[in-house]
Amino acid sequence: MADKQRKAHRRGLPVWSHFLIAILLVAVVQGFVVKVYRVPSGSMEQTLSVGQMILVNRTAGTPERGDVWVFNASEQWLGAPMPTVDGPKSALRWAAGVLGYGPGLDHALVKRVIGVPGDKVSCCDLEGRLTVNDEPLTEPYIYDDVPFVAGVEDCTTEPRSRRCFAPITVPDDRFLMLGDHRGDSSDSVSKCRREDAASDCARFATADGLVGPVIGVS
User: Fold this and answer.
1) pLDDT in tens, 21-78
2) Burial of 9 per CB tally in 10 Å (0-12, 13-18, 19+)
3) Strands 120-123 and 130-132
């Protein structure tokens, strides 16, 4: 008798309730364990391509240099207050963020971690390499870098190579993030590559805006 009642109860559940339960389960998983994102731009080519789906580990700890992380851009990064979305659009964006399709409520970006708190990052050495704490980096993942030719277009010539920027010290709870497609990436130092760059030109990912490292690509 009890089995018949349970079966009748299951048959009595409306179709929409199954959909709602599925959405809630996905929201829990994406909120606390693994989140799905769609790559929004070509700034990480050839490591990641526009439109690719990526899996992000939300349980990871602190970023390390060289990791590829997703983070939510701050107002300091955007250079403007975060836009507000109200009404039905807000619900649609929430659902898009949960399911990994379309823009969510946050402005999520994916970049490579180059500098962690306390690091001094600059470019370039005599060979055009990025340096962290005065040590040159080997970066085989770079695609389509900004032109640099020693003695012709470098950090001492006029005009200067756009690859160059003055030393930047990464503040506490901040991370310096660059795209692998250096010639076409709006990142932590893109505003610092001008010769007339302001002293506060750098922008950073914030510790509370970090989402997690990329652990899978489809």
Assistant:
1) 555 655 555 555 689 999 999 999 999 999 999 999 999 889 999 999 999 999 889 9
2) exposed
3) antiparallel
> Distance between CA 9 and CA 164 in Å, rounded?
68
- Catalytic residue of the set 35, 74, 111, 188: 111
Q: Is 111 a catalytic residue?
A: yes
Of 69, 78, 156, 148, which is closest to residue 115 (Cα–Cα)? 69
Query: How many residues would you count in the chain?
Result: 218
C-alpha neighbours within 13 Å on the C-beta side of residue 42: 4
pTM to 2 decimals? 0.80
Instruction: Delimit the domains of the chain by residue range.
Output: 2-67+84-112+209-217
DSSP string for residues in the chain: -HHHHHHHHHHHS-HHHHHHHHHHHHHHHHHHTEEEEE--SSTTTTTS-TT-EEEEETT--S--TT-EEEEEPPHHHHTSPPPP--HHHHHHHHHHHHHTSS--SS-EEEEEEEE-TT-EEEE--TTS-EEETTEEPP-TT--SPPP-BTTTBSSSSSSPPTT-EEEEEPPTTEEEEE-SSGGG---TTGGGSSTT--TT----EEGGGEEEEEEEE-
**List 7, 17, 35, 43, catalytic entry:** 43
